[in-house]
Design a protein that fits this description.
Blueprint (H helix, E strand, L loop, with lengths): L16 H12 L24 E7 L6 E8 L4 H14 L2 E5 L19 E5 L7 E4 L5 E5 L4 H10 L2 E2 L11 H7 L26 E10 L4 E8 L6 H4 L6 E8 L1 E2 L3 E6 L4 H4 L11 H8 L1 E6 L7 E7 L8 E2 L7 H4 L3 H12 L5 H18 L4 E4 L1 H5 L10 E2 L2 E5 L4 H17 L9 E6 L31 E9 L6 H15 L6 E4 L16 H13 L7 H11 L8 H7 L1
Parallel strand pairs: 2-4, 3-4, 15-16
Antiparallel strand pairs: 1-2, 5-6, 6-10, 7-11, 8-9, 8-10, 12-14, 12-16, 13-14, 13-19, 17-20, 18-20, 18-21, 19-20
Bound molecules: flavin-adenine dinucleotide (FAD).
Pfam families: Chol_subst-bind (PF09129), FAD_binding_4 (PF01565)
InterPro entries: Cholesterol_OX_subst-bd, Cytok_DH_C_sf, FAD-bd_PCMH, FAD-bd_PCMH-like_sf, FAD-bd_PCMH_sub1, FAD-bd_PCMH_sub2, FAD-linked_Oxase-like_C, FAD_lactone_oxidase-like
GO molecular function: FAD binding; oxidoreductase activity, acting on the CH-OH group of donors, oxygen as acceptor
């Protein structure tokens, strides 16, 4: 763990030296590659025959990244993606895979940075094929633009599922793999991991994938399949968009229905008590009992919304059977004008902000009651998918704290104490909930393939020097974009978090899709975090897949920097 900190903003965008190297390589291969001129508004020219492009608006889910007009293509198959990549290499353009734009981190396009010579490649229009393969080792083949909801739906039709998944269904599998998407869940006490089940990220379930990569021998980009036992797949399993995955094979398991119970009456001090046991309703007691839990703690309230999922083959009498996902309409089915109005009212001086947490808590209590949703039972996907895009649009930081299961209570008790301390010291209020989930790590063997390698850039990659670390605590502080003092609060929290724990007990990694690297002007700007903390968090403990070898491997797969963006330039150098 680093001991020094600085949050100075990264002053300027650095050009990748590799672009020059890439240009030289291309020239050697008979291609001419002028370096991309950011800000060049000219349309793409000389495109491969038959592939149309159009100017489209880009707005990420939180509304914090908006570009009114970005050149966008929607290739019909992997071959068309390949032709676009070869075209980009020839013409000095950059390509960014585009899924459902749910990511907070500006990996694809950055706010306020011109998008000239950037072509977005929309995978959601045509690259959506899904094929389920049943049998002793069930799996699903999916094209990169297939939505998680569609994939889980197809699996469910065959009686299959995944152990834990991200909460929204409108995420592409390509986008989820890019950032190491995850759900919540560790084995309950006495629960045996089933063959092919992983308590880590979705990336850890990948059996193989196809990506567009540079082939040095041929001197051009090619489509190549990578298998899970090939070390070359490690940087692609969580790739931050610095590669282009066109399709993927994901391991599945026979589905076990889940009961999902909601609790609103357990004081946060009890749930996050420093020690487990003593008959208290601690988070650990729920994890021991059921393995799967999530805390949503609205600001200024006493007791959070706790959801606990328990695998149960038979519906308990008191549970309501559900046959479709998204069973909390009171929390995620609000028209955009309403959510925008709430957000504006919350951040206005003297506005709703002070009481927003109580309003949300009250609405949850009433909503759970009115929709009889406190106790649900159904196929796993019908309780694990519970966030629609029409929920209040928030911004979030995100971190994974790798540690021993026994540390869940003391670690979270310290986080709670810090949040309390900051409040009493007059820190700017959070206008959104604090969320906690707990997963296992990405043990590569879990996918069932001998010799499987771990996703190199996954926050859940196990630490070889700490084989006793078996869980990751995922921590997110949410607030409304533009909330007064929010950035200062995030800066202070991150600074505290990175120094708070004994590095022999807890290792902190960032949650790629969310906010991290906070500096005075916002997230993803702290040079210290980008250049030191993040690389160190992947180097710590040694083993295969350190930061620099992984970045170098990604660069070898894309020597022309076709898939780079301003943030990736800064992060990967
Ligand atoms: C309300 C909400 C709730 C969320 N809940 C969760 C959660 O429970 N768990 C969790 O883990 N995450 C969660 N997320 C984050 C989400 O998983 C990621 O942001 C994910 O990347 C979004 O998928 P997408 O299709 O929208 O990708 P996009 O946002 O479109 O793309 C994300 C990045 O992936 C790259 N990319 C997309 N497709 C490909 C491809 N084919 N090959 C290579 N790179 C590609 C893009 O270039 C971009 O850099 C949540 C986000 C929101 C907004």
């Amino acid at each position: 763990m680093p001991t020094t900190r600085s949050t100075s903003d990264v002053p300027t965008l650095r050009r990748r030296e590799l672009l020059l190297a890439g240009a030289a390589t291309a020239a050697a291969g008979g291609l001419v590659v002028p370096p991309p001129a950011l800000g060049d508004p000219s349309p793409p020219f000389d495109l491969p025959a038959g592939i149309a492009v159009e100017r489209r608006r880009f707005e990420n889910w939180s509304g914090e990244i908006v570009h009114e007009s970005v050149w966008t293509a929607a290739p019909r198959d992997a071959e068309e993606v390949l032709r676009l990549v070869r075209w980009a290499a020839r013409r000095g353009w950059r390509l960014r895979a585009r899924g459902h734009d749910h990511t907070w981190a500006p990996f694809a396009v950055a706010p306020g940075v011109a998008v000239g010579r950037t072509l977005l490649v929309d995978t959601t229009r045509h690259l959506t094929g899904i094929r389920v393969v049943t049998g002793a080792r069930p799996r699903v083949n999916a094209q990169a633009g297939a939505a998680m909801e569609a994939i889980l739906g197809a699996l469910a039709e065959a009686g299959l599922g995944l152990t834990a998944v991200p909460a929204p269904g409108d995420l592409t599998i390509g986008g989820v793999l890019a950032v190491g998407g995850h759900g919540t869940g560790i084995p309950a006490v006495g629960e045996q991991r089933r063959d092919g089940a992983s308590y880590g990220s979705i990336s850890n379930l990948v059996l193989s994938l196809r990506a567009v990569v540079w082939d040095g021998a041929q001197g051009r980009y090619v489509l190549r399949r990578f298998h899970r036992d090939d070390p070359a797949i490690a940087p692609l399993l969580v790739n931050l968009g610095a590669a282009f995955v066109v399709d993927v094979v994901v391991r599945a398991v026979r589905d076990v229905p889940l009961r999902c119970e909601s609790f609103l009456d357990i004081p946060i001090e009890e749930l996050l008590a420093p020690t487990a046991g003593g008959g208290r309703r601690t988070l650990s007691s729920f994890l021991d009992r059921a393995g799967r839990a999530e805390i949503i703690w609205y600001p200024g309230t006493k007791s959070p919304w706790l959801k606990v999922w328990t695998p149960m083959r038979v519906r308990p009498q008191e549970s309501r059977r559900v046959e479709a996902p998204y069973n909390y309409p009171f929390s995620d089915q609000m028209p955009r004008p309403v959510t925008d109005l709430i957000a504006r009212a919350a951040i206005a001086p003297g506005g709703l902000g002070r009481v927003l947490g109580q309003v949300m808590h009250g609405a949850t209590a009433v909503g759970l009651e009115a929709t009889r949703s406190s106790d649900l039972w159904g196929r796993s996907k019908d309780t694990l998918l519970y966030v629609r895009p029409t929920t209040l649009r928030v911004t979030a930081n995100g971190y994974a704290l790798l540690t021993r299961r026994e540390n869940v209570q003391p670690v979270l008790a310290r986080v709670l104490a810090e949040l309390r301390r900051a409040e009493s010291a007059g820190a700017p209020a959070l206008l959104g909930p604090t969320e906690v989930r707990v997963t296992g790590l990405d043990h590569p063997g879990d996918c069932g393939r001998d010799g499987a390698v771990a996703p190199a850039l996954s926050a859940l990659r196990p630490r070889p020097d700490h084989p006793e670390w078996d869980v990751a605590i995922w921590l997110d502080l949410l607030t409304i974009p533009g909330a007064p003092g929010a950035i200062a609060r995030m800066v202070a929290f991150e600074r505290w978090l990175l120094a708070a724990f004994d590095p022999g007990e807890v290792g902190v990694r960032v949650e790629w899709s969310k906010g991290w690297g906070y500096a005075r002007k916002g997230a993803w700007r702290s040079r210290h975090v980008l250049e030191r903390v993040i690389p160190a968090s992947f180097d710590a403990g040694g083993g295969r897949g350190g930061w620099r070898p992984t970045v170098d491997a990604l660069t070898r797969l894309d020597p022309h920097g076709i898939f780079r963006s301003p943030l990736l330039d800064r992060l990967l150098g």
